[in-house]
Specification:
292 residues, mainly beta, Immunoglobulin-like, C8orf32 fold, 2 domains, seven-stranded antiparallel β-sheet, four-stranded antiparallel β-sheet
């Protein structure tokens, strides 16, 4: 088990008469990600509306902020108990064998145009043995063929753009891996959250986007973690939201005009209830925080 402590500070200058916000910055509560305690503080006297999606465990905070400065501060301590599996034991399932709720992650989506990457995916990965190793080969290919550079993409950049430009940030790496996986019939989804262990040379801590791929060990299916950007340590990932692509998992959706400041983020490993501090590390096994 890994215990992590995190915090997020979001600051805005709300213009006009005010605007509505939908935030997705709270850690998901799942059987394998337990929120020990958390705090959500707002600079304005507003009553937020809370909603948790029963299928994805995504937690949304909806509120209206009036004109002027507005800030949100979220902090939490959480325990993550990973499910570990031997990569050689994990196989792909045919669309016929997949659970119904997984099927949507086979289809093209706004930023993951898998239908337009089928030839590339078939050429590069169609000959590989189906299973975890094929998903890992896709992850490795993306990491080897795309360079991580800040401020090289925008909210319109898709997997097709990243194939052409070969540069991007974590969300671009994730979109490309997801599109290539779906192009060879592997269900894949995008996850937003925080990452522990990123290289400080990449800049100040920020939200992180990574990938989960649905595979089976022969007994049950789970979503397994992959980080095509290679910038952090999967054992230190904290899940906020999951979705088809970035359109489903934005940390802030804003209905109105604002000036937004750079998020201030921190995350660290801390001692558990028994005083033991487990440092997230890279491991050879397949990891999942999917609850079963």
């Amino acid at each position: 088990m890994v215990r992590l402590e995190l915090s997020t500070q979001l600051d805005y200058d709300v213009l006009d008469a005010g605007c509505d916000f939908i935030f997705s910055v709270q850690a998901a509560r799942t059987p394998r990600q337990t929120v020990v305690h958390e705090s959500l503080q707002l600079s304005l006297r507003v009553t937020p509306d809370f909603h948790t999606d029963p299928a994805t465990h995504n937690r949304l905070v909806r509120l209206h902020a009036r004109n002027g400065p507005f800030s949100l501060h979220y902090s939490a301590v959480l325990d993550i108990t990973h499910f570990e599996a031997a990569p050689r034991d994990l196989r792909e399932l045919s669309p016929h064998a997949l659970p119904g709720e997984v099927l949507t992650y086979l289809w093209p989506s706004r930023y993951c145009q898998s239908d337009r990457l089928m030839n590339l995916a078939s050429q590069k990965f169609g000959h590989l043995q189906p299973g975890y190793d094929r998903a890992q080969a896709i992850c490795d290919w993306v990491q080897q063929h795309v360079s991580f550079q800040s401020n090289t993409s925008n909210s319109n950049t898709s997997a097709i753009d990243t194939v052409i430009e070969r540069v991007g940030v974590c969300r671009d790496f994730a979109h490309l891996m997801i599109a290539l996986c779906r192009a060879v019939n592997i269900p894949a989804r995008m996850v937003s959250g925080m990452d522990y262990g990123a290289d400080p040379a990449l800049g100040p801590p920020d939200f992180h986007a990574y990938v989960e791929v649905y595979l089976s060990d022969g007994t049950s299916g789970r979503w397994y973690l992959f980080d095509p950007s290679g910038t952090a340590i999967p054992m230190g990932f904290v899940r906020f939201c999951t979705g088809r692509d970035a359109a489903d998992i934005a940390f802030a959706t804003i209905f109105g005009r604002v000036n937004a400041m750079q998020p201030v983020i921190s995350i660290q490993a801390v001692p558990d209830a028994q005083g033991q501090r487990v440092e997230p590390r890279r491991v050879a096994c397949a990891l999942s925080t999917d609850g079963h």
